[in-house]
Design goal:
- With 510 residues, this protein is mostly helical.
- It has helices spanning 4-43, 50-68, 71-83, 89-106, 110-133, 136-157, 163-171, 177-198, 212-226, 262-280, 284-287, 297-311, 315-329, 342-349, 366-382, 390-402, 428-447, 451-456, 461-470, 480-488, 495-509; strands at 233-237, 243-245, 251-255.
- The protein has a three-stranded mixed sheet with strand order 1-3-2, sandwiched between helices.
- Helix 10 packs across helix 12 and helix 17 packs across helix 21 (495-509).
- The chain is globular and about 70 Å long.
């Protein structure tokens, strides 16, 4: 009898695990359907479909929430808590992720979930119209409604110190405002010193113009050479570039373009490519579980910023890509691309200059944009900043941080899509991602000292394999802290980023 007990317990766990896996697969399928509806809304949906699309999304969100709080989900959660300590390590980590998702869902009433989803879908279309018409009052009522709902969401989740912690935790589990704000303030202080120094130097010449169609084709060539699988993904245009993963087999990215600044299209493509490579390389055995995604948004952003900035803006990449720039751009509209050198491209795409648009900001001033948004988010969430005063607060803080002031709301508080999506707490992930990326880069160069030569030859496979083995393969099984410590042996800090950007600027300006 005693010999049979372990076998019986094992059989019971196998049955439980099979049921839990089926449940997670069903939840992830619903989430993919929601993501597909959102992708369609932001790319090809007719404008007058917004109201009906909001109903579709709200209905699916309600169904998803009902599944996540069902009797089945509760029973699985109770069982998961019981077997957690005795489960194998990999399964224990997945159980922890499942319990986190279950508890978040159980904390919210169905009405809040439905209203939030419906409001977000309408807010996205309102933001798009407001941005086109340069009319913040068009978007303001939706922002008011979203803030009311996000405050309720934060209160129902609960938080250790500040309401913002509850929303920050959705994107960077365990991170708190009391940690991230001082980190960003210290980082921007360091960047202010660098900015002051480089603004005293002669500025590089901008790149010649190029047609959007040529930019798009060149960007696709970059993505294909680096490793984007077009059999499992696609690239489109949208107002705000983004990446949507419906699973490793269907990952979609978007970009936007400017005839006069070809790097806008190309580098937003490389940014979203970094997200896509992460998503396309999640192991199949994790894809249907709650570990089948990035460890956090900051780790995800580290990959986007890694390929956009550290690789894409490197001198080695510019030397490799120069023939492609000339192939697609030379002679078009009479632009003088024939005489452009790799060094000129390198200097142009790394020019440090205060600018209004976050997605086009250089690596030094980028963090000022994130600090601005973090501060405004906190004030909006707590109610200390009324929505009606947001444009002026934005412009004043932009002027204080970067000595430039937006002339309209389109280039000010309406430039990002995130608030219309209800993504309060997301923005810090961008700066945190830059720090993670620099830490990974330092370790990668130590392990692959010939890396610059690989990049200059267009041999990206060794780099991709390194990332696949150390980051992509674990999905969300490990926390951000575990990943960065396993790879670098250190905790998150801004030191490696400061070293990286200082070295790069020395090349650019000296």
């Amino acid at each position: 009898m005693s010999a049979d007990r372990p076998r019986t317990r094992h059989t019971a766990f196998v049955r439980f695990w099979s049921e839990l896996t089926d449940f997670m697969r069903r939840i992830r399928s619903l989430r993919s359907a929601l993501a597909l509806l959102s992708w369609d809304q932001e790319t090809i949906m007719p404008r007058k479909g917004a109201e009906r699309r909001a109903e579709h999304i709200a209905a699916l969100e309600a169904l998803l929430h009902r599944e996540m709080t069902s009797t089945t989900a509760r029973r699985l959660a109770e069982r998961a808590a019981t077997v957690m300590d005795s489960a194998p390590e990999r399964e224990r980590r997945i159980l922890r992720l499942f319990l986190r998702e279950y508890r978040r869902a159980a904390a919210l009433p169905p009405q809040l979930v439905t209203e939030l989803a419906h409001t977000q879908a309408l807010a996205v279309e309102s933001w798009r119209i407001a941005r086109e018409e340069n009319s913040f009052p068009t978007f303001a009522p939706y922002l008011e409604r979203l803030l009311r709902l996000k405050r309720e969401q934060a209160e129902r989740y609960g938080y250790p110190e500040h309401p913002y912690d509850a929303l920050l935790d959705l994107y960077e589990p365990g991170m708190r405002l009391s940690t991230v704000r001082p980190l960003l303030e210290a980082l921007t202080t360091q960047m202010q010193h660098l900015l002051s120094a480089v603004l005293q130097k002669p500025q590089p010449q901008p790149l010649p113009s190029a047609p959007c169609a040529a930019q798009f084709v060149l960007g696709r060539a970059f993505c294909a050479a680096i490793g984007f699988d077009f059999q499992r993904g696609r690239i489109d245009f949208s107002t705000h570039p983004f990446c949507t993963a419906l699973g490793p087999e269907d990952v979609r990215i978007t970009t936007r373009c400017s005839d006069h600044e070809p790097q806008v299209c190309l580098y937003s493509m490389l940014h979203e490519l970094g997200h896509a490579l992460y998503d396309q390389n999640i192991p199949a055995e994790l894809a249907s579980t709650f570990a089948g995604e990035g460890a956090s948004m900051a780790i995800h952003e580290s990959q986007a910023l890694f390929w956009e900035d550290i690789i894409g803006r490197s001198l080695a990449f510019c030397r490799w890509s120069l023939p492609l720039w000339k192939q697609y751009f030379d002679g078009m509209l009479g632009t003088p691309w024939e005489s452009v050198s790799a060094e000129e491209i390198f200097r142009a795409v790394n020019t440090v200059r205060p600018s209004l648009i976050r997605t086009e900001a250089d690596e030094v001033t980028y963090h000022f944009h994130i600090l601005l948004r973090l501060q405004l988010e906190v004030e909006l969430l707590t109610g200390s900043l009324p929505v009606s005063e947001l444009p002026e607060a934005w412009n004043t803080m932009m002027e204080r941080l970067l000595q430039i002031r937006p002339s309209d709301d389109r280039s000010g508080c309406l430039q990002d899509i995130h608030w219309s999506l209800g993504d309060f707490g997301y923005f810090p992930a961008y700066s945190l991602g830059k720090l993670y990326a620099a830490m990974f880069w330092k370790q990668l160069r130590h392990e692959l000292p010939e890396l610059d030569e690989y990049i200059a030859r267009g041999e990206f496979q060794p780099l991709l394999e390194w990332l696949r083995e150390r980051i992509y393969s674990v999905g969300a099984l490990e926390t951000p802290e575990e990943i960065v410590h396993r790879i670098t042996g250190k905790a998150l800090s801004h030191e490696d980023f400061v070293d990286y950007i200082t070295e790069k600027l020395r090349l650019v300006y000296d």
